[in-house]
Design brief:
Blueprint (H helix, E strand, L loop, with lengths): L2 H24 L5 E5 L6 H17 L3 E5 L6 H9 L6 E6 H10 L11 E17 L7 H11 L4 E4 L5 H13 L4 E4 L3 H9 L5 E5 L4 H5 L3 E6 L14 H4 L7 E9 L4 H16 L1 H9 L12 H21 L5
Length: 326
């Protein structure tokens, strides 16, 4: 083989090897799909759209929301985990899809702490105990007594097994020792609509979804499952103040990419999210919904990876102790 030919072969090899690196440097060169594992209008969808709106400006390409419902968000998460690891398909996962799902679905098609590359935590979302507006109990102590006495004729709305609304009310039910009839909906939005219309009795929901409805008196809010009251609903007592300190429930929403996504692409996405959470307008929109925004130390890829592991450890025993689920 001549020296010239060997040189040409080596040059071509270097050129082909450099293509992936160039693609990473130029990322993104086309629109990005952001999978949301629940119906439009729910808490995860709202947070995803607010974050994506700002990230689009930073990245210079549109972020297109794709709502995929089914199996408590695990249908969408399975699709996201199996997507090409090129940064053009990412997911807004949450406590349900990336923590509670491990115990809820023995045959889960993905491992949340293995099959995804963390991008960053977007927002914490405190969970409230809610009921239809004409529900008899006037405060949480009366609510506890009433549901214990009437569980056989009460129904609880949720966004599907594995959703935040399901898992956090499962925690509530386990604390109270009750098993009301469980009514699933294709998303928290439809479940909330049923609560407002009085078709269901009570539910647990993230604050992002219910501030206006509580303020307007369309539904009752008995307590919020956090240590402090939330500025968006300052008149709603904490669960401790209301007499049920065991109910501590704050969900979270975070961005994930498929495992194997190149680090430079992950870093660009993390940086875009970081800029969004520093943006005054974006922060205002999220805070007005009642979201709790992570500080700098809680935003990064490593912090999210640690959160996923700790949340799996937290929710697995709660779910297993509940026994058969419906």
């Amino acid at each position: 083989m001549s020296t010239l030919f060997r040189g040409l072969v080596a040059g071509l090899a270097i050129g082909f090897a450099a293509l992936p690196a160039a693609a990473q440097t130029d990322y993104p060169r086309r629109p990005i799909t952001l999978i949301v594992p629940f119906a439009a209008g729910g808490p995860t969808d709202v947070i995803a759209r607010i974050a994506a709106d700002n990230m689009t400006r930073t990245l210079g390409q549109p972020i297109i929301i794709e709502n995929i419902v089914g199996a408590g968000g695990t249908t969408a998460s399975t699709r996201a985990a199996r997507a090409a690891p090129d940064g053009y398909t990412i997911e807004m996962g949450h406590m349900g899809t990336h923590a509670a799902s491990v115990a809820l679905y023995p045959n889960l098609a993905y491992k949340p702490d293995v099959d995804f590359a963390p991008i960053g935590l977007v927002a914490g979302t405190p969970v409230l105990i809610l009921a239809k507006k004409d529900f008899q109990p006037k405060d949480l102590k009366e609510f506890v007594a009433y549901v214990k006495a009437n569980e056989a004729k009460l129904n609880m709305a949720h966004a599907g097994v594995g959703s935040v609304s399901f898992t956090t009310c499962l925690l509530l039910n386990s604390i109270l020792g009750i098993k009301p009839t469980s009514i699933p909906f294709n998303g928290t939005g439809p479940a909330l609509t049923a609560l407002i219309s009085g078709q269901v009795d009570f539910m647990c929901d993230q604050i992002v979804n219910i501030v206006q409805q509580v303020q307007a008196g369309q539904i009752k809010a008995y307590a919020i499952g956090t240590a402090e009251r939330n500025p968006a609903l300052p008149n709603v007592p904490t669960s401790k103040e209301a007499g049920l300190p065991e109910f501590q429930a704050q969900a979270w929403n975070a961005l994930f990419a498929p495992k194997g996504t190149p680090q430079p692409i992950l870093d660009k996405l993390s940086d875009a999210l970081d800029k969004a959470l520093d943006d005054e307008g974006t922060r205002k929109r999220l805070l007005e919904l009642g979201s709790v925004l992570p500080d700098k130390s809680g935003r990064g890829q490593q912090a999210l990876a640690a959160l996923v592991k700790s949340e799996i450890d937290r929710w697995t025993p709660v779910i297993k102790a509940a026994g058969p689920l419906n």
